[in-house]
Amino acid sequence: MKKYLITFIITLCLSAAVSAETIKATVNGMVCGFCATAIEKTFKRQSEVKAVSVDLEKRLVTVETKPGQTIDDAKFKKLMTNTGYSVVNIDRAK
Fold it and tell me: What does the alpha-carbon distance between residue 17 and residue 11 come to, in Å, rounded to a whole number?
């Protein structure tokens, strides 16, 4: 029984280490569907990104990374700035 418990704990820790991350950023400057499309195209080109969505009303960009991968804040902000928008804040969740 002890062996199974240890195996379970190790498996749980490893699966948490390779879990995907959800990044939610409040962004200024988005006003139309073309803005959303530009942001989606930019992030979909990144190898770490599994999915991206843009909510214009809430000024929210949500990026889901692939398991075990992430985009650091500096890269996220650079991608947004290069696309023409400014990041107000970034929240992360596993």
Answer: 10
Number of folded domains in the chain?
Answer: 1
Return left, alpha or beta for 51; rule: phi > 0 is left, psi -120 to 50 is alpha, else beta: beta
- The model's pLDDT over 15-25, given as tens digits with 9 standing for 90+, comes to 545 678 999 99
CA atoms within 13 A on the CB side of 65: 18
| pTM exceeds 0.85 for this model | no
- Is 13 contained in some domain? no
CATH number of the domain at 37, please.
3.30.70.100
The total of other beta-carbon atoms located within 10 Å of residue 9's CB is: 10
